[in-house]
Design goal:
The protein is mostly helical and 169 residues long. The chain is built from 6 helices and 2 strands; from the N terminus they run H-H-H-H-E-E-H-H. A two-stranded antiparallel ribbon has the order 1-2.
Length: 169
């Protein structure tokens, strides 16, 4: 049987996938909450966990594993899972769009957009949760580590580059 498909009685697989999704959401959420961003740990955790649940639904097989042997049924399940993943990405995108704010800054003579990274991070948490739900836990863990590098490390790099530019001028 494929690693992606699982039986509804396979509690270990269900718990493992949902736990990975939960951990992914918590890790990214804590990172965002620690820096005072609009969405925090609970939001990221719920998005990641919900995404995992949605993609897990069509991946269940019969308790005897017979579903995995039926090529037509597997094809239908994968097709349904792809449509669900598309719906999750769209829905999470709308959620992220609600975080983005555009503010007029008359003192600076320009408009400022805030929340883009938080919105993109929520979208990423949905994708990582979906990967965990599909049983692609390695992809989810590696994606989370890379997200932390981007969210924490690149900000420090940007600050240090701006500081060195100021010193050179």
């Amino acid at each position: 049987m494929s690693e992606m498909f699982f039986s509804p009685e396979d509690w270990q697989s269900i718990v493992f996938r949902l736990t990975i999704a939960l951990v992914v959401g918590v890790v990214i959420g804590v990172n965002r909450e620690r820096t005072g961003r609009p969405a925090g740990m609970r939001t990221f955790t719920v998005v990641s966990l919900g995404s995992a649940l949605f993609v897990m639904i069509p991946l269940q097989v019969l308790p005897d594993g017979s579903f995995a042997d039926n090529v037509m049924a597997r094809s239908t399940a994968l097709n349904a899972m792809a449509r669900i993943a598309q719906g999750v990405a769209t829905g999470v995108g709308f959620l992220g769009a609600g975080i983005i704010l555009r503010q007029s800054r008359p003192e600076l003579g320009r408009e400022e957009v805030k929340g883009l990274t938080s919105a993109a991070s929520i979208w990423l948490a949905g994708g990582l949760g979906a990967a965990a739900g599909c049983g692609l836990w390695r992809m989810s863990v590696i994606g989370t580590l890379l997200a932390l590098v981007v969210l924490s490390g690149l900000k420090r790099l940007k600050k240090s580059n701006l500081k060195s530019l100021d010193e050179n001028n």
